[in-house]
Write a structure and sequence with these properties.
The complex is a heterodimer. Chain A is α/β, with parallel strands linked by helices. Chain A contains 15 helices and 14 strands. In chain A, the strands form four sheets. In chain A, strands 1, 2, 3, 4, 7, 13 and 14 form a seven-stranded mixed beta sheet that branches. In chain A, helix 3 links the parallel strand 1 and strand 2. In chain B, strand 3 and strand 4 form a beta hairpin. The chains are: A alpha/beta, B mainly alpha. At the A-B interface, helix 4, helix 5, strand 10, helix 9 and helix 15 of A face helix 4, helix 6 and helix 12 of B.
């Protein structure tokens, strides 16, 4: 059924007026739809075909990643791309319930999506590929459901906020310790990602080494975090609103290191081998994206199939190596689909310091998932970061 | 009754006398209402909302403003960022206006009349390129291993390396590059409006070139200068890109290593699910801008009165 205006069969004067008005109204509505059609997320044709609709970070929409799913299920997957958790929440809030069937969310934003009643828990039964996940991704710590065996999201992609550094200016040993960033020779030569969550999480680990819950700290521990940040402030040369300006600053020699992690991947791919990254011995923050199913979805079965699809090593091997972005996959079988260069670049190679383990496993073991402040209001942490920036 | 008598009792009506003329203002009124007034009211309104369970809830609470002003010079220290913004904006406006005025003067007085349009087009050519691309270009020029320092190194002057990147000087360079084409047009138009006879008269009465400039051209350019400077201050106050990409987010100035206020708004918005608080922060900036605009209007009006 369409919404096209219907001409009336009745030809009386009264009905003519009504129909003319309704016709004009419909035409105006049609014109408005045509004019503002570019601002809507999905086409009418897409609505008719009932595709799967996913709100996600870049990368998931690339053809290499999704084509097999579309062929297998003879469906179309439509993506709305966001950059940043807050934008994700805004997009979700601005659309009618049921618009999206699935969401790729940062793990800590699951809490916010739950508060919005946007997503629902699902059983992990039947997710055979979870057996190949690294154990740290099988505990689902930030996304566990209320009942046993349920989760709000399964990890699909992750990476680290360790130290990225210029190997001509900082040694691998120095990069193993957060306190190296306080060295006077790095004054004004550290670049920082302009977001309180990873930076305060890393600072929390710097002062409470090995803490498995760096975001659940008491006020005394938070005070120590502030002291560490105060010492770190003179070292900061720039704040970057994304990875790109920080990588650019490293390349230009304006900064020597950054607690942003993984900047070396793109720089190495661009032919610069004098960059590396690691997670300091005290621990570092790990970001991870999880696949969630929307509560109001009318296509939940297909959404669940898509989540399953995203857990496969083959799909993850492509997802974490897209044009948009390079990251890491939680399914350890991912290496079966990569060549040696890819394995080396993304640290899926034996770790000489830990026989029997891949380097990425050592880094996963040393890292803790990014979370939200548990014992203080979020604003208190934001205020602390702003105070650090304006110090 | 003669024709003359008729015209005396019924004066001829022009379109300006028609009450319908008010309707010709409708497009402007609709445009301003839809694209300026309503979004502005919405922004102001959200500033009074509150957040519950990470969601914005309509309300009429002064909580956001109370929180912000309570942490104006402590905690988040938005006040310091606002001072940094004002300092950067005022100095940027000063230098951008002087630079643009010199360019506009040279186009108006040194370029032959038939080439002036082309000269103006060339002067505003940077405006047709992307602002962000221009900022990245400046990053390449100003950075430690950038164009300037590479040239200095080539000439054996590596010890004289300049470190402008991630300072508020770099922020100003980006802003001036952005503002100059617009200011040049404003100032060129205001210079063109100066009656050349006055300048010629001054010269014939014995004024030197400098005296003709200081006693005739400059006073008659005051209105344009004030308008251009006000525009530059408002744009500079609201811009976050130059401060982030060239100023490094918290660039050094004589006030200190502080972010600009617009940069803090951006950062706060992307950090938390707190649209009401961000709206309140933006509203404070709008109030400062309106005050700057009002000051500019007063100054421009005084300048016009003095010269009229």
């Amino acid at each position: 059924m369409t919404n096209k205006p219907q001409l009336p069969k009745d030809t009386s004067s009264q009905s003519h007026q009504i129909s003319r008005r309704s016709l004009l109204g419909s035409v105006a509505a049609g014109a408005a739809t045509a004019s503002f059609g570019n601002f809507t997320i999905f086409s009418r044709q897409a609505h008719a075909a009932e595709p799967l609709r996913v709100l996600c970070w870049p990368g998931y929409e690339e053809k290499d990643v999704i084509a097999e799913f579309e062929d297998l299920h003879k469906t179309k997957v439509e993506f709305k791309i966001y950059i940043g958790g807050e934008q994700m929440l805004q997009f979700f809030a601005q659309t009618a319930p049921g618009t999206f069937d699935a969401i790729i969310s940062d793990a800590e934003y699951v809490q916010k999506l739950k508060a919005n009643k946007a997503i629902e828990a699902y059983k992990t039964d039947g997710f055979a590929e979870l057996a190949n996940y690294h154990p740290k991704f099988r505990d689902f710590a930030p996304t566990k459901g209320e009942t046993a065996g349920t989760v709000y999201g399964i990890p699909t992609r992750f990476s680290f906020y360790g130290i990225s550094y210029n190997t001509d200016e900082m040694s691998a040993e120095q990069a193993q310790d957060w306190n190296s960033l306080l060295d006077k020779k790095y004054a004004g030569k550290i670049g920082m990602f302009d977001w309180y969550l990873p930076n305060l999480g890393n600072a929390s680990l710097a002062v409470n080494p090995g803490n498995q819950t760096p975001y659940a700290i008491n006020d005394d521990q938070l005070k120590k975090v502030k002291e560490f940040l105060t010492k770190l402030r003179p070292q900061i040369g720039m704040f970057g609103s994304s990875n790109q300006p920080i990588a650019q600053a490293m390349l230009a020699g304006d900064i020597f290191a950054s607690p942003t992690g993984d900047l070396d991947i793109d720089l190495k791919l661009a032919g610069y081998d004098n960059f590396s990254s690691t997670i300091p011995k005290q621990g570092g923050i790990r970001w991870q994206e999880v696949a969630c199913v929307c509560s109001a979805s009318k296509n939940k079965d297909l959404a669940m199939e898509w989540v399953k699809y995203m857990t496969s090593p083959k799909v993850q091997s492509k997802l974490v190596y897209t044009k948009a972005f390079k990251a890491r996959g939680p399914n350890m079988k991912i290496v079966d689909y990569w060549d040696d260069d890819q394995k080396k670049l993304l640290s899926y190679v034996p770790d000489p310091a830990n026989p029997g383990k891949m380097l990425v496993e050592t880094l996963i073991d040393r890292s803790m998932p990014r979370g939200l402040p548990a014992n203080q209001p979020e604003q208190a942490w934001i205020d602390m970061f702003n105070e650090f920036k304006t110090a | 009754m003669t024709t003359v008598e008729t015209s005396a009792t019924k004066p001829m009506r022009t379109p300006n006398d028609s009450p319908l003329k008010i309707w010709f203002l409708a497009p402007l009124a609709i445009w301003l209402t839809v694209f300026f007034l309503l979004p502005l009211i919405f922004l102001l309104w959200i500033g009074f909302w509150r957040v519950e369970n990470f969601q914005s809830v309509p309300d009429f609470s002064l909580g956001n403003y109370a929180d912000i002003f309570a942490s104006f010079f402590s905690k988040s220290r938005y006040g310091l960022a606002l001072i940094q913004s004002l300092w950067v904006a005022i100095t940027t406006a000063f230098f951008a206006t002087i630079l643009s005025y010199m360019v506009a003067l040279s186009i108006a007085f040194a370029v032959p009349a038939r080439w002036q349009r082309l000269a103006l087009l060339i002067a505003i050519a940077p405006f047709w390129s992307s602002y962000v691309l221009r900022l990245y270009s400046w990053q390449t020029i100003l950075s430690r291993n950038g164009v300037i320092n590479s040239v200095l190194k080539q000439f054996g002057l590596a010890d004289y390396r300049i470190d402008l990147i991630y300072t508020q000087i770099a922020t100003r360079i980006g802003l001036i590059h952005y503002l100059a084409p617009i200011l040049i047009v404003i100032l060129y138009v205001s210079i063109l409006a100066i009656d050349r006879v006055l300048i010629e008269a001054a010269r014939e009465l014995g004024c030197t070139r400098w005296q003709a400039f200081t006693r005739v051209i400059l006073p008659l350019s005051r209105f344009g200068l004030m308008t251009a400077a006000s525009f530059a201050i408002i744009v500079s106050l609201g811009d976050a890109l130059s401060g982030n990409l060239l100023g490094g987010g918290a660039g050094t100035s004589i006030i200190g290593k502080l972010p600009t206020y617009a940069s803090m708004i951006m950062s706060d918005y992307s950090s938390s699910t707190n649209l009401p608080r961000t709206s309140a922060l933006a509203t404070i900036l709008i109030v400062v801008m309106v005050l700057a605009l009002a000051a500019g209007f007063v100054a421009a009006d005084r300048a016009r009165r003095r010269t009229s």
